[in-house]
Amino acid sequence: MNKPRTLAEKVWDDHLVVKGEDGTPDLIYIDLHLVHEVTSPQAFDGLRQAGRPLRRLDLTIATEDHNTPTLAIDKPIADETSRVQIQTLRNNAEEFGVRLHSLGDLEQGIVHVVGPQLGLTMPGITVVCGDSHTSTHGAFGAMAFGIGTSEVEHVMATQTLPLKAFKTMAINVEGTLKPGVSAKDIILAVIAKIGANGGQGYVLEFRGSAIRALSMEGRMTICNMAIEAGARAGMVAPDQTTFDYLEGRPHAPVGADWDEAVAYWKTLPTDEGATYDAEVNLDANELEPFVTWGTNPGQGVSLSDVVPSPADFSDPNERAAAERALEYMDLTPGTKLKDVPVDAVFMGSCTNSRIEDIRVFAAIVDGKKKADGVRVMVVPGSARVRLEAEAEGLDKIIEAFGAEWRFAGCSMCLGMNPDQLAPGERCASTSNRNFEGRQGKGGRTHLVSPQVAAATAIRGTLSSPSDLEG
Amino acid sequence: MEKFTSVTGVGVPLRRSGVDTDQIIPAVFLKRVTKTGFDDALFANWRQDPEFILNQPEYSGARVLVAGPDFGTGSSREHAVWALRDYGFDAVLAPKFADIFRGNSGKQGLLTGVISEEDCEKLWAALEAQPGVELSVDLVEKKATLGDLVVPFEVDDYIRWRLLEGLDDIALTLRNEQAITDFEAKREGWRPKTLPVRHA
Ligand code: SF4
Predict the structure, then answer these.
(1) Interface of B with A (CB under 8 A)
(2) Sequence-ordered list of residues with C-beta below 8 angstroms from that of A114, at least 6 positions apart, any chain
(3) What is the pTM assigned to this prediction?
(4) Which of A87, A141, A174, A324 is the most buried (most CB within 10 A)?
């Protein structure tokens, strides 16, 4: 009998082109290469200089997301760097023959929303992109990770990457989530538990009944943020939820291919008796809505807690980090997080901008008015999500609430386009990074779920949906 | 990438240690969309000073940089190597390099030779005594020669082999071209294809 293997090991083994020897890396085949305007220009330029073609145009797809405006998308982009990056991608796509979905196109959107939505992301494949949140695609049971610009060029030229094998970590989440608690809270709790570097060198496999109960959107939210625990990738074993999500999507297999694929996909879950290099357990029953108070995604607590004190940390580095973070965030230890007022709410990013996320947000704000003085922005992850939401009338609910309904893109997740926080502004954000200045110079970010974002937009202070009752 | 056996050219004594990648190429230049054309970005802040060594006409056409210890520390930007290459440098000799910088250099055909601090001083003195003098850097023999002065240098064996063979990462992988093609021939029909375009 074969040695029991984990999901990650199976996918790895099935993509081995050349097995490395004497410490040289394995050569791994890449099934799908996603491209966007920020990390691709020099890769295309490198190919051009070396006179190399792009090996597999049929495994490559590009979209514009990081720099795209979310208002007046028919006007020329004002910022020069943004405009040049986007124009460069258009020129390169044209020259090399890469499929590109440009601003205004029906399939344009955040690269990690577009892949799954087209049915290109599927179980048992390898996915790379010059973007760290490529881990999102692991929700399907794919091996998906971010790469640097020279690796982007490498994949373009060879459709492979030399890689050293990763270690594996099981994250077991058992139990049932309470109402108002979501996938975002699971991953924020995991990162708070293992630390923002706790996953370094690992592929995290999210397992257990609470994960099985999640929708594909929820699983994507979790895998998206695996990288915020320092992990190379996050994965969830494929199951019926995965197959149901995929079936009928534009690029999903059909006919005999579909049957063959499903039969293979069913062999992917980790074998009984396989071992992981590390294991972490989390009780879903006890989870509450989570929020970050600091400037890395590991600095989070339950929303019903108070702002921690640096003195709570025994590790001197963590204590110093907490001190710095509290100063930047302008928070006083002991303050109830629910008493913290916000200036802005951002609902979007590749973590939480899919149709299900927008539905959750709209359901909570339906018929209500946003808090005075709070700016609320809702940015769908793709043009298709926007259309779908509009077909369901969600845009009307969101606008009647007093929020801005925008066009698709990364937007205020990183503020490369004009969607930024002003210095000192505080924001409840459904995105994935709360680093200093991430959403605009001097801006302060609290990472939250769509549920918490909605409740916060209504009350004006960090809030969970349960605070809205009574 | 061209094969690298030796280089002979004008040597520049850069009497500074801990030259980090931010100094090699300031962050404002990272917004560019090409991999070449960074020659004006190299040491851009320092070059605003007319006294800076690269602004001296004797050193035009420089090909070998001799710098102090801890060259290339700081953020891992590949642009630092591109800028040195674009300016015309083929080799940097220094008593110590940051690891990531050294790795990036090997990939882009820039030789990073490790010399002793003593030899570094000697080279600086010789280069300053005759501004614009040429020196030879021989990768086969692992030594640099300036007149009577002969200085040995160390270089990682794997990087040396790649430079001698003129292999970049992609060329190395393409040595397995047949294996890649064989793998592709067995690729199942259900696996994703972005072309032809299919719509909902
Ligand atoms: S939404 Fe944010 S995290 Fe996601 S790809 Fe865009 S910038 Fe990166």
Answers:
(1) 31-36, 78, 107, 168-170, 172-174, 176, 179-180, 183-184, 187-195, 197-200
(2) A34, A61, A63, A101, A107, A108, A382
(3) 0.90
(4) A141
| A417-450 confidence digits (pLDDT tens) | 889 999 999 999 999 999 988 999 899 999 999 9
Say yes or no: CB of residue A110 within 6 Å of ligand 1. yes
Nearest to B170 among A29, A52, A253 (CB): A52
- Residue that the structure tokens 């590390």 belong to: A278
* Distances from the Cα of A251 to the Cα of A115, A369, A386, B155, angstroms: 10, 40, 20, 49
Do the Cβ atoms of A159 and B194 come closer than 8 Å?
no
**A333: its two tokens:** 């230890």
State whether residue A404 is helix, strand or coil: strand
Nearest to A191 by CA among A218, A219, A225: A225
Contact A204, A279 (CB under 8 A): no
User: How far is A251 from chain B, CA to nearest CA, in Å?
Assistant: 6
CA angle B19, B20, B24 (to 5 degrees): 85
For A101, counting Cβ atoms within 10 Å of its Cβ (0-12 exposed, 13-18 middle, 19+ buried), the class is buried
Spatial separation of the C-alpha atoms in residues A347 and B43, rounded to whole Å = 42
Give the list of residues 6+ apart from residue B39 with CB closer than 8 angstroms, or none.
B83, B86, B87, B88
Does the pLDDT at position B51 exceed 80? yes
A425: helix, strand or coil: coil
Distance A408 CA to ligand 1 centre (A): 12
Query: Percent of chain A having pLDDT more than 90?
Result: 88
SS (H, E, C) A150-205: HHHHHHHHHCEEEECCCEEEEEEEECCCCCCCCHHHHHHHHHHHHCCCCCCCEEEE
Q: How many of the other CB atoms lie within 10 Å of CB of A310?
A: 16
Give the chain A residue nearest B175 (alpha carbons): A158
pLDDT, tens only, A366-410: 999 999 999 999 999 999 999 999 999 999 999 999 999 999 999
Q: Which of B161, B153, B135, B144 is nearest to B63 (CA)?
A: B135
Q: Is the dihedral of CA A226, A344, A398, A68 positive or negative?
A: negative
Amino acid identity, position A66:
H
Band the pLDDT of B200: cuts 50, 70, 90.
low
Closest alpha carbon to B191 in A134, A30, A19: A30
